[in-house]
Amino acid sequence: MSSFWKVFISIIVTAAVAGSGTWYATNYFAKKTITSKDTQIASLNKTLDKYIAQSEAAKKSSSSDSTTQQATPQSPAPNPWLYTNAKYGFTLTFNSKWTNYSVVETAPSSDPHATAYLYVCAPTTDASWQDKKAGYYCPFSISVATLANKAAYEADNAEAETPTYIKSNANYAFYYSQAQAMPTDGQTFWDDWKTVKATFATL
Q1: For residue 144, what are the CA distances in angstroms to 150, 169, 170?
Q2: Where do the structural domains in the chain lie, given as residue ranges?
Q3: Rounded to whole angstroms, what are the CA distances from 117 to 132, 140, 146, 175, 196?
Q4: Which of 52, 158, 74, 77 is nearest to 113 (CA)?
Q5: Are 168 and 147 spatial neighbours (Cβ–Cβ below 8 Å)?
Q6: pLDDT tens for residues 86-121?
């Protein structure tokens, strides 16, 4: 073989080897770059999915809290002037004039058809005054009778000016009577007792 052909073949082989190496290197780095980008994209998708899940969980939690707050509204503050008698089933509403008021229950001693007498009282500084509770003036009282004794109780008191019928609930009938005297500082309650009596309500 002549020298020309040897040189020519050597050039062709060298070019082929060089081209193959270049293609291999290019292909390798291209694949490596693609793989690296795929890994980055997968990582970003994973992070995005995590944030989406956290956002959805936060929305559900907020919605649940809102529903709970709507389902369980706060109870209003109790009325400090509301007197509730659960035993007989009625309420009275006082006002600031009646600070430290007291309701005193006594058993009837002379009326067989009455169940109880409830005296509505306010503090007094009149040392000479004596009432159902020491240091108190009771401008009116509420009599209680069972519904079974209602007619008999009213017959017993038919000729008296008091007691006066108020109303009944499922078990009892209620009546009020006014005191006939007052202590030296009792005018405020003498004038205001009807306002309290008017708030009477059954349970």
Answers
A1: 9, 11, 13
A2: 1-74, 82-202
A3: 11, 10, 12, 9, 17
A4: 158
A5: yes
A6: 999 999 999 999 999 999 999 998 899 999 999 999
